[in-house]
Amino acid sequence: MKMLLNGQWVDRDDKIDVIDPFDNSVIDTVPSANNADVETALSAAVKGFEISKRMSVYDRAQILYKAAQIISSRLEEFATIIAREGSKTINEARKEAGRCVNTMTCSAEESKRILGETIPWDSFPGGEKRRGFYYRFPIGVVLAITPFNDPLNLVAHKLGPAIAAGNSVILKPATVTPLSAIKLVEALVEAGLPPQVIQCITGIGSKIGDPLVSDERVRMVSFTGGVEAGKHIAGKAGIKKIGMELGSDSPVIVWKDADLKLAVESCVSGSFWAAGQNCIGVQRLLVHKDIYDEFKTQFVELTKKYKIGDKLKEDTDMGPMITENEAKRVEKWVKEASDKGAKVLTGGGRKGALVEPTVLENVPADATIHYEEVFGPTVNLYPVDDLDKAIAEANSLPYGLLAAIFTRDVEVAFKAAYELDCGGVMINDSTDYRLDSMPFGGVKYSGLGREGLKFSLQEMTEPKVVCFNLPGI
Ligand code: NAP
What we know:
Blueprint: E1 3-5, E2 8-10, E3 15-19, E4 26-31, H1 35-52, H2 57-73, H3 75-85, H4 90-111, E5 117-118, E6 130-138, E7 141-145, H5 153-165, E8 168-172, H6 179-190, E9 198-200, H7 205-213, E10 218-224, H8 227-236, E11 241-245, E12 251-254, H9 260-272, E13 284-288, H10 289-304, H11 324-339, E14 343-346, E15 350-351, E16 354-355, E17 358-361, H12 368-371, E18 378-384, H13 387-394, E19 402-406, H14 410-419, E20 424-427, E21 447-448, H15 454-459, E22 461-469
């Protein structure tokens, strides 16, 4: 596939192979952008903004609705690309493509609700006879940098609101999964988006990232990815807006009065969705000691039923990790934990990029898999007997995206909701529950700002005040 620069689909001799991690076959190639391409993207995006900021809200909304229709009518095609270039099974990929339709539709709807307010100028002496208000204006060129794990919908979470707001966008998708992103850009152009409004540049982040991020023509960097890249980008960005959707180590408390079947089923799914490569994937399960043994037995039993393998087969529950190197990293972390005294209750094995769904207990605090985001198909069980201690344990690590608690006790639920230090608390769902239109983001190392269409639109627009001095009134 090609990249889109200055209204043209272009290729380069220097190409990047896009590989299916299940069988290592080359699915396609994309151009590896060079510094001249970065400059083309930047200068074209500035011109694109001159077009996008003058487009009516009606036109922007119609384009987004049409793009949603295009994706919906080719859902299987989109799902197959997601499944082939990434880790998701075809069933997981279909869900992602369906969510992308919703993300684009909600972006269209939210474009009509970019509202301002009147300002009571006479609320302080000296402001009499003034009337005025503020609009929310597009911010300018938005640089969208996206990760591999939701290669379509997380791109839509940036392109949808950026276009809804009237911005121009430079998209740099993850190098391992650029195809779904390019297909989305194609759908937008087919839906009528002037191609100058969107630049899609493919290339290695460590090579083309700095000149894009640090350029003063970019007015906002909207980044989703890991903490390390996030810190680097924050250091390079200079004076511009930054949105950061970073990693986590999602804690889930299972209290003694929990609906056990519900908790087991949601947490198994939440642990192993997309082979655990999910920013809200369950990593730490803090289970009340009164139900710990029963929960553990049922959890391990269900995990053992997971079918892993070919992503395109309808009955596969979990596919491979994104690369064999990533799978080796997870294998190493499991071994390190087990060498330090953790017990592997099931899983632990690896073949190529396939890692068995793995459940651990007795994981010591100095094991990497305890305190770092694992981003793989492993989960740790910890017994707890005191709510304050469970909440303190959940809050003990430097992340805070989503947390969850299973309980039937409304007081326990409210206490957890109030005291868990994170961007959202799910009650009787695992952390792996997200509505695309809810405010989504984290505290601490999990990020800065919020996504979720209406909330992304706030981040991607700026208030502009208009004040009339009307001495004659
Ligand atoms: P990553 O390695 O940080 O890469 C994310 C994106 O950043 C890629 O497009 C990457 O390009 C680019 N990048 C890397 N270094 C860069 C630099 N110096 N300058 C500019 N861009 C740079 O993350 P990933 O492995 O794709 O994704 C996994 C991480 O994303 C996990 O930590 C996960 O928790 C997080 N995540 C967070 C959310 C959320 O909403 N909070 C959602 C999904 C994922 P290349 O591909 O070319 O390296």
